């Protein structure tokens, strides 16, 4: 089974908040890493449990979370429940209406309306990002395709991808501050930002940015990739969420889990493993799809369900992975 890049351009990382201090964050900035999520101190180590599931029901309960802007580069997510549900999607910004794009769109419209938020891990617009807040791709590729503001009314917490860097990254930041169609649902305070979360009294912090200088494409350094991996391991990071490769994967390196979901609609393709950065492949599928994350902060349990589609757009099997931290 082919493995792909050990680290990707974009990610969100689940970690123990007590282990992620300001010095670590400074190092993370220095290597253009992704995001860090902090929770209460982790429980004893447990292996990833994989189970194949039947087609699941769409969520029926509305979100209990409220997302607001705090200080510069800071979001506040306040949830009445200690359970948070979000949908992760990556590499979805394909302009063409392909079978994969349509399948992911239809699935997202079934599963995402009652999620607390959508996590977009980059490559939001192909091939060269957007030129401005008035670029027609905003309307065609995002607002109209996903019914933003009509069929889908949840926040899209978004991170930049390498293709987004080929256009105006500032335009993606500015869109969230403007009055264009759907702008109130587009959440990107800056290229790097934090999300301070309270879930029924339990604290969690997210530090989100793109890893534009990391990965196996472009002008990248294996040394920097290894440096980032060392930081993640020493900071007791538990899980890393990302995209970039156009497929669906679950990888593991030591006690660090990698949930990768880059099958958002761009043409499916495999990647290349940089020297010295291999991780164990627990699951790999050359399919379109997205991931549903159910996080119980109080119980320190994460359940990740991969919703997947075949190359012709037909529905494929689902896979659920659970982790006790």
From TrEMBL:
It comes from the Eukaryota. Keywords: Hydrolase, Signal. Residues 1-19 form the signal peptide. One of its GO terms (molecular function) is hydrolase activity. The keyword Transport does not apply. Pfam families: Metallophos. This is Calcineurin-like phosphoesterase domain-containing protein. It comes from Lagenidium giganteum.
